[in-house]
Design goal:
The complex is a heterodimer. Helices cover 76% and strands 3% of the residues of chain A. By secondary structure, chain A is mainly alpha-helical. By secondary structure, chain B is an alpha/beta fold. Chain B has a domain at 2-88 and 156-234: Rossmann fold (3-Layer(aba) Sandwich), CATH 3.40.50. In chain B, the strands form 2 sheets. A 6-stranded mixed β-sheet of chain B has the order 6-7-8-3-9-10, with helices on both faces. Chain B is globular. Classes of the chains: A mainly alpha, B alpha/beta. Chain A binds chain B through residues 162, 165-166, 168-169, 172-173, 175-183, and chain B through 50-52, 71-73, 76-77, 81-82, 84, 88-93, 97, 100-102, 104-105, 149, 153.
Amino acid sequence: MLLAQVIVGGLLLGAIYALFSSGLTLIWGMMNFINFAHGEFVMLGMYVALLVVVWLGGGPATFGFAAAFALFVLGVIVYASLIRHVMRGPMLAQILSTFGLALLLRYTAFWIFSANFVSLPQVSLSGTLNVGGILMPVPQLVAGVAAIALTLGLHLLLTRTTVGSQLLAVAEDRNAAMLMGIRPDRMQALAWGLAAGSAGIAGALMAVSYPWSPSVGETFGLTAFVVVTLGGFGSVPGAMYAGLIIGLIQALSAYWLGPIYKDIVVYALFAALLWLRPQGLMGKA
Amino acid sequence: MTELRVSHLKVHYGDLIGVSDVSLRVEAGSIVALLGSNGSGKTTTLNAIAGLVQPSGGSIEWRGETITRQPAYAIVAKGLALSPEGWRLFVSQTVEQNLRLGAAVLADKSRMAALFERVYAMFPRLTERRHQLAGTLSGGERQMLALGRALMSEPRLLMLDEPSLGLAPGVVEALYETLDRLHKEGLTLLLAEQSIPLALDIADYAYVLQTGRTVLEGKGADLEKNEQVQEIYLGIATQPGAGDTPRPT
């Protein structure tokens, strides 16, 4: 029974990994651009949730949407002020620009919020659900289910709507998309908004259950890279499965080997996968 | 009335010259052919008109307005559409999504249903394959989709870059019948082709490009009989070496 509970817990956390990783994979798929500041977007989402709860009150829906909206706006600003200019530069400029952005965001957070760990004050979500003997804390359950729903929502937005089709058209053939009257810079700004927004809401969902400090962005950024590589760069469904798998592996290795080994196991399996299947689970060879 | 006027167009790709001096005019309701061998500058000319490449000299006027150096998405919104060389379909999306993308520029979205109906009536094959990925279509079907996608923006003038390239002869004939019908419905066409006979049959007027310059122009029927055209296109040299292209200076 304990094992079942570990599995459920791993999947619920993995669902959040899936959500913020889908933003990273979207940017890669759209623009062949790696965003090293993606983990910092998650971290900022957590602080937005904190500020909203402290200043305005309100439940998870309120601070979740606030984090999504604030980070969406930040994503668009980052695209318009930084990415648009370095996009056509050499690969090194792209890498250094988002790496620099990550440092800027992280240390700004240190400056404003200090390095102390914080957590959300008791919010309306609490209690534990007992499903056939498996105990599930309500906050994690709500966050995990919401994260899966949002990841699926992002996937449906891309594959089933006109604006999603236009986004993918720009990704596939920028010039041909322009001949259709589509403005690539608008679509790319939208992609950055969606990517940062999904990272922000993922942060807010995690803030419900876990304490954090400004340095968590680094961990989440790394996790997102593992998830995106495992799922295949550019694939949102791939990121979803991979997020769940990583969450599960972490939970099981923490259970069987002890919490300090969970990351070692993840990265060891990750290295093995890169060796055997460098294109990821759902990536194209 | 002159719809499109290109004067002394010049395009550079870095140090390379795409076209050095191209001038042409397209009258409302006409079919104009842009002829020339591979590398003569047809694609560069059409891409410059459509706004995909920036001219380094000359001017492009569309219905009295100078559109030189405007971005492609602004130009298609004015009713001047290009169906590019090699069709450039969005192969990872469905036939219907490709058509919908073609209508991205429509100001009045309520026209969409009527436009879909028109394209599907014109190409029943596309109706059957509407939910199939564009990448799974045959060459002929891809040409239909490219043409249908371009028509979804309701252009006044449609530029087609080598529409018959890589198609079976029967399919090319069907394509030209469709173009003829579209023309009769009022569409103005600017057609870049390497294979002349069909293009000259359908064209009211034609320009011949050679190494980035307009070297010859005239009524379609006149050019058909012209010896120089025969040389340039069909490679029939009247004397040894006459069909060779001169070096750009």
